[in-house]
Amino acid sequence: MEHRSLIHGVMGEFETPEQILAAAKAARAAGYKHIEAYTPIPVEGLSEEIGFRWTAVPLITLIGGLGGGLTGFGLQYWCAAITYPMNIAGRPLNSWPAFIPVTFELTVLGASIFAVVGMLALNRLPQPYHPVFNVERFSRASTDRFFLCIEARDPQFNPAESARFLQSLNAQHVSEVKDEE
Amino acid sequence: MSVTQPPVNAPELRHLDPILEPGHTYASVTDKIASVVLTRPLGLGWLAGFTLAFSIVMVLFGSIAWLVVKGVGIWGINIPIGWGFAIVNFVWWIGIGHAGTLISAILYLLNQKWRTSINRFAEAMTLFAVACAGLFPLIHTGRPWMAYYMFPYPSTMGIWPQFRSPLIWDVFAVSTYGTVSLLFWFVGLLPDLATLRDRAKTKWQQVIFGLLSMGWRGTARHWHRYQSAYLLLAGLATPLVLSVHTVVSFDFSVAIVPGWHTTIFPPYFVAGAIYSGFAMVLTLAIPLRKAYGLEDFITMRHLDNMAKVMLATGLIVAYGYFIEFFMAFYSGNKFDVFLAEQRLHGPYSHFYYALILCNILTPQLLWIEKVRRNVVALFIMSLVINTGMWLERFVIVVISLTRDFMPSAWGRYSPTFWDYSTFIGTLGLFVMLIFLFVRGLPAIAISEMRELVEHEGHKREHE
User: Fold this and answer.
1) 3-state SS of chain B?
2) Under an 8 A CB cutoff, do B160 and A79 touch?
3) Which is the most buried residue in A8, B50, B132, B202, by most CB within 10 A?
4) ipTM of the modeled complex
């Protein structure tokens, strides 16, 4: 198979959270739709600036919690009242107060597993390869540099134009992100 | 700043002890913490400590092997004392784990910035303590290979667990606790694993951290979902940690045995768990910050705060001991009164007095600021409290079981060599895992420290 280099986008490097926040805002204002910011720390408000507002993680967690709780109670009810009933001095088989601890634990377990797996799945992780890793300086994105990437799929994208635009935002290094396919 | 400088010792200056020494940048905190994992050579101290811990783990394995061969008769347990060391150690270990979750979840929800530099290894401590704890009920069954009987599964015999029993609640509580602690820990580690991947010096490090970090890139979208999940996990872990030791206390308080059947047990078990857990965090933090020069990150402020938490939870525990006595006499139940007298004058009374000395009297020294700021004194204090909390469980388990209702059913308990070797073996396992952890993974949450740099930097600009 032939290797051709595609362009994933252009990427500018910034030094502080304030700079990248301003840059993201400027890029949005300039009409770019497909932009992504890479930061070593979570920057408050940055995801809103790049056009990401709503995450399904809490909803997924709620579903996991409800599922876990219902499973927990259902399991105990089925064991104690249906499949393996034990008559102990005529006490009710559905002794629900005694089932609360396990119901609670399985609620927490279900919610936690769904929260973590949901977060990873929505983030498309694990994903060993991504074009941004081709940029040499990108290794600092997990230490002390903030990167803004204008992606090639943006209708307004133009390698030279967009690079110039990032430079005009005082980006320190502007590099092309190559994608191999 | 005001015009007149307050004297150096003024309280308003003293409590301004930083949670991060000034002058740190994103890169400097990252370098310092990552270098312990990536570049620092193995020192003689680490090798010696690891070797010692590893040989103690061999003692544990030997003890368990002998147990499997001979059965639980090699321990000092017999009727009426069927629980003995196994359950004492189980409750002690699981309690120690609780401080890790308290620090990582509850202090996170309360927005306590000082938790940042201690949460990672406190969570690791939780995992390792839960592992040690889980071992005891497992081997206490005598046939650990049949432990799966405790889980509900469709067996050909058509039998199911008794869900009205606290012992089954315990199975669910402890296994959920272990799983959620692991998830919480891993989610916290994810950005740090990516940092290590990006700074890895050798192929091996690149492969291992590359696999573990799952391709984390730290995009704004990643962080958004990540923070959402982390906050939810903290919210879930908070009631969970309170429920776990409550369920452990139900193992006792749901029974009718004198000294166990009291409503004070759940809250005072939870307080005791946090008490011993913070003591263990101090036991680990003090040598760790010294050995790897992390005094800038784990400052006197952290030690001071932890000492205060110990003082507060210790007082709750003291209140619990008082209420146990009060309720025994107030209820007028002759078995409860008799048990209270047995604690003071019975054959195991010296354990009770040692417990009061370790858990109530000695920690009162923490009221004194000089003690809270003396690293050596704090270290000794943490060991004393850990001993005291172990004695507490010994007193609860053994005194009640040896002298319950009918004198004809009384007995005595003395642990054997194998009881001690198994207990000491789990201490070795715990220490060995901690040794592996501090060199294999970042012992301080790097990404959260960078956030702290950002936060503290802003604070200083405003001053």
Assistant:
1) CCCCCCCCCCHHHHCCCCCCCCCCCHHHHHHHHHHHHHCCCCCHHHHHHHHHHHHHHHHHHHHHHHHHHHCHHHCCCECCECCHHHHHHHHHHHHHHHHHHHHHHHHHHCCCHHHHHHHHHHHHHHHHHHHHHHHHHHHHCCCHHHHHHHCCCCCCCCCCCCCCCHHHHHHHHHHHHHHHHHHHHHHHHHHHHHHHHHHCCCHHHHHHHHHHHCCCCCEHHHHHHHHHHHHHHHHHHHHHHHHHHHHHHHHHHCCCCCCCCCCCHHHHHHHHHHHHHHHHHHHHHHHHHHHCCCCCCCCHHHHHHHHHHHHHHHHHHHHHHHHHHHHHHHHCCHHHHHHHHHHHHCCCHHHHHHHHHHHHHHHHHHHCHHHHCCHHHHHHHHHHHHHHHHHHHHHHHHHHHHCCCCHHHCCCCCCCHHHHHHHHHHHHHHHHHHHHHHHHCCCCCHHHHHHHHHHHHHHHHHC
2) yes
3) B132
4) 0.93
